[in-house]
Amino acid sequence: MLSHEMDGPPLSEGRDRKLRNQLILANIVAWIAIAFAVRYFFF
């Protein structure tokens, strides 16, 4: 198991990048939703 994990750093790197992209997308969607909610509540 350990040797297999140490064998492929690029895989974990790609997974981290994908996770980071998903987090950024989730943040953008959340901010858009908040902006729409504020617009509807206050205007």
The oligomeric state of the chains shown is single chain
Number of strands: 0
Q: State Rg.
A: 18 Å
Q: Can you tell me the residue ranges where pLDDT is under 50 for at least 5 consecutive residues?
A: none
Largest sheet: none
Number of distinct helices: 2
Strand content: under 5%
Number of domain units:
1
Mean pLDDT: 83
First CA to last CA: what distance? 57 Å
Sheet/helix structural class: mainly alpha
Shape: rod-shaped
N to C succession of SSEs: HH
Helix content: over 70%
Core attributes:
93% helix; 43 residues; mainly alpha; rod-shaped
Structure, described:
The chain has one domain (10-42). Helix content is 93%, strand content 0%. It has 2 helices and no strands. The termini are far apart. With 43 residues, it is mostly helical. The chain crosses the membrane at residues 23-42. Keywords: Membrane, Transmembrane, Transmembrane helix.
Topology of this structure?
Elements: H1 2-7, H2 9-42
Outline:
The protein has 2 helices and no strands. It has 43 residues and is mostly helical.
